[in-house]
Amino acid sequence: MDFRGKVAIVTGASSGIGRITALRLARLGCRVVPVARRAELLESLVVECNALTPGSHYLAGDLGERDFAQHVVDDTVSRHDRLDVLIHNAAIPLHKSLYRTSVEDAERVLRVNFLSCLWTTFAAIPPMLVRGGGHIVNVSSFAAKVVPTHESVYAASKAAMNAFSEGLWNDLAGSGIHVALVHPGPIDTEIWQKLDEPGHYAGRLYPAESVADAIVEVIEKRRHEIVVPRRNPALVTARLLRFFFPALIRIGVQRTDPVDPDSVERARRRAREGKRLGEE
User: What are the domain boundaries of the chain?
Assistant: First the structure.
């Protein structure tokens, strides 16, 4: 694929994977529309993008709101008369005891991590059909394949993205629209500083550039799915155990990040008081 002259939306672009991907695409000749909530970071990013390829602009807002998510696509097509690449990278973490998680917490994660992907995709398909095709890249998570303790809701939001994307492989056959999934493992981004409760992962963190490389690769080679890092022994072993010996992977996950017995008893007491999950 020749990226020159193409238009790409990158969500979750204010830092980390999204920012690096936006710069990578601009370097390849794309006009980039980075999207996130932090306008000041997007503004500085667009300056860098325009120094590489003129014509980029940003949109700041909350992708957890359907009107804004749809506006991102509509505004881009209105300004540029095309949309060639949609990269859905926006996500918020939720590493938190289930007993302390409210329905509102869960709903917020699902809206940002999955529904915004659905909303932008539904808005992007018509203009891509008009031009004869396009690329949609959904950045998921290895947590959707092997679910860590305290991340049931986060993993569910990414698993929904996976199923949606896999369904699109069939639903969009013959349309010229290519959909790809990228599954990052432990990547060095600011998401680790945003956990609601301390995490127990103590292994190596891989650079965000490796995910940006994978995003460009699935577009250039029209690949459907990549795990990053691809040859990490722990990720390979976890996937094999999940497939062949699911009981072993459950035991391993529980030992790595066990549930505190006291938290269960506290939740039991709150339940006797008639409180819902997440209510203190």
Answer: 7-231
Euclidean distance between CA atoms 93 and 196, whole angstroms? 8
Phi, psi for 259 (deg, rounded to 5): -80, 130
List, in order, residues 6 or more apart from 270 with CB less than 8 Å away. Answer: 99, 279, 280
Helices and strands in the chain: count of H runs, count of E runs: 10, 7
Q: What is the pLDDT of residues 20-78, one digit of tens each?
A: 999 999 999 999 999 999 999 999 999 999 999 999 999 999 999 999 999 999 999 99
5 backbone φψ class: left, alpha, beta (φ>0; ψ -120 to 50):
left
- Catalytic machinery residues: 154
pTM > 0.85: yes
According to CATH, the superfamily of the domain at 7-231 is: NAD(P)-binding Rossmann-like Domain (3.40.50.720)
Pairing status of strand 59-60 against strand 85-88: unpaired
